[in-house]
Amino acid sequence: MDKRLNLLYFSATGTTAKIVKEIAYGIGEPVKEYNITLPGDRQKELSFHNDEVVIIGVPVYAGRVPEFLTEYFVNVKGNHTKAVFLVVYGNRDYEDALLELEDIFEGNGFIGIAAGAFIGEHSYTGKLAAGRPDEDDLKSAREFGMKIKDKLININAHGKIEKLIVKGNYPYKERKYQQPVAPETNDKCINCGICATHCPKGAVDLVNFRVVDATKCIKCCRCVKRCPANAKAINQESFIQFTQGLIDKFSITRHEPEIFL
């Protein structure tokens, strides 16, 4: 492949990053990474040229691309840039997220050549899609990357790109209002500040690490999972009941990756 490969991804708990990087490994080209997980990494405008390929990976939030990412993606421009669209969901459903991601970027000058929906451990609980992406998922991602490489070689030889078709509906699933909730901090807190420096939305106070702004929190649980003292957890009863409902409905069936070429 004679095109530069770029990775553009948001990955609060690391699952999306694993899949994106494994696909890149399957393609087998040197890459440049744009990790937009932290607020400071979503400040600059990005532009890509027609001799580049971009793998774009995001998590699924309630069947959609996270709204704050759609706002940022306005600042990411392509110029007939070939793109691979990837969504990662917690074994429930990805609904309209993949189509939405494709629409956003094709509207910004990108040309979709492949897309995929993969499964990662749910951010709310380790009881849903536990340990995923697992070895089988990563193997599927590598093989997907190899297929993308073959497609790019074929495109270079023939110059023809057919319209990419993915699952999803338009109008997209309506975003529903959710009562703001956020992790609470218990007495185990050691004031290390890891939660504040790693929060994707800047919701954890940078002075008093015990304080979390629920109006900014996206419930990605990055602070919960990174805390070395297990000092943070979302304890609101409505959240606990909702999470248990997800476990009851979706923990038995194992969903597998879906790819579109």
Briefly say what this structure is.
The protein has 261 residues and is of the alpha/beta class.
Explain the overall architecture:
With 261 residues, this protein is an alpha/beta fold. Helices cover 30% and strands 19% of the residues. The protein has helices spanning 15-27, 67-73, 97-106, 135-158, 194-198, 222-226, 237-250, and strands at residues 4-9, 31-35, 46-47, 52-59, 76-77, 81-89, 110-119, 184-185, 232-233, 258-260. The strands form 3 sheets. A 6-stranded mixed β-sheet has the order 2-1-4-6-7-10, with helices on both faces. Strands 3-5 form a two-stranded parallel ribbon. It has a two-stranded antiparallel sheet with strand order 8-9.
Q: Which keywords apply here?
A:
globular; single chain; six-stranded mixed β-sheet; 10 strands; 261 residues; alpha/beta
* Rg value: 19 Å
End-to-end separation in angstroms reads: 17 Å
The 3D shape can be described as: globular
Arithmetic mean pLDDT: 96
Could you give the order of the helices and strands?
EHEEEHEEHEHEHHEHE
Count of DSSP-assigned helices: 7
| Biggest sheet layout | 6 strands, mixed
The helix fraction, in percent, is 25-40%
Low-confidence stretches: none
The total beta strand count reads 10
Q: Please state roughly what percent of the residues sit in beta strands, choosing from under 5%, 5-15%, 15-25%, 25-35%, 35-45% or over 45%.
A: 15-25%
Which secondary structure elements does this structure contain, and how are they paired or packed?
Elements: E1 4-9, H1 15-27, E2 31-35, E3 46-47, E4 52-59, H2 67-73, E5 76-77, E6 81-89, H3 97-106, E7 110-119, H4 135-158, E8 184-185, H5 194-198, H6 222-226, E9 232-233, H7 237-250, E10 258-260
Parallel strand pairs: 1-2, 1-4, 3-5, 4-6, 6-7
Antiparallel strand pairs: 7-10, 8-9
Helix pairs in contact: 1-4
